[in-house]
Amino acid sequence: MKGVVFDLLRDMVEGQYGLEGWNTVLEKAGSDGMYLSPESYSDQEMMSLVLATSDYTGIDTDDLLRAFGQFMAKEFYNRFPSFFDNCDDLIEFLLSVDRIVHGEVLKFYPDANLPSFAYEEAEANKLTMIYRSDRMLCHLAEGLIQGSAAYYKKAINIDHDLCMHNGNDCCHIDITVLGGADE
Ligand code: HEM
Ligand SMILES: [Zn+2]
Fold it and tell me: Residue 142's closest CA among 113, 115, 179?
């Protein structure tokens, strides 16, 4: 996992719980907290930090990953607005994540470990994102989707019935845009 993700977790925890909160998390996780954005650090270390943050805040890990995903989406918008601005609506943006957004990330960081998304579009206001990744961070994906919806000012509903955490080989994240497809 890239250092940039660790930096974002620190920003979120520090923003809500101060430097003292982040230092407690680092101590619990046994991390030194020295991260450089383009460097890679172990997925294991990220999981330890997430577990330590969950322990410190009392927020269960799935909800914590969802909150972190929402925070990440906001930060990605601040850092890379063109990915969002180039798309007219939420579904178009989500369809661009696998090949365009993460494709560009791979050009920038050739050793990035990105998930793969396949897509199913059954109806105009619905999209299924089929998530596959050894890291099984589907709840982070849910948060990233919610955070992206906030950017497009859309209310959405997410169903996540098929999940790798329940023994399936991929996750089906079903997104319904509420209140009409075009508004
Ligand atoms: C401008 C928007 C986005 C940018 C710049 C971006 C970039 C990145 C980067 C840098 C990583 C870390 C890769 C690594 O550490 O090796 C990552 C991971 C990830 N991204 Fe994105 N991303 C964006 C939007 C999204 C959206 C909207 C979703 C969900 C639909 C998503 C899903 C994920 C997930 C779940 C991971 C964690 C790795 C995994 O699950 O295997 N991303 N992304
Ligand atoms: Zn899942």
Answer: 115
118 alpha-carbon distance from chain centroid: 16
Sign of the dihedral through C-alpha 104, 173, 48, 150: positive
Closest CA to ligand 1's atom 5:
76
| Ligand 1, atom 39, residue with closest C-alpha | 115
Q: Is the CB of 132 under 6 A from ligand 1?
A: no
Q: 157 and 100, same structural domain?
A: yes
Confirm whether 130 is domain-assigned. Answer: yes
Rounded to two decimals, what is the model's pTM? Answer: 0.96
Q: Is residue 65 lining ligand 1, measured as CB closer than 6 Å?
A: no
- Assess whether the C-beta atom of 10 lies below 6 angstroms from ligand 1: no
Q: Do residues 37 and 112 both lie within one domain?
A: no
Q: What is the pLDDT of residue 181?
A: 44
What range does the domain containing 38 cover? 3-59
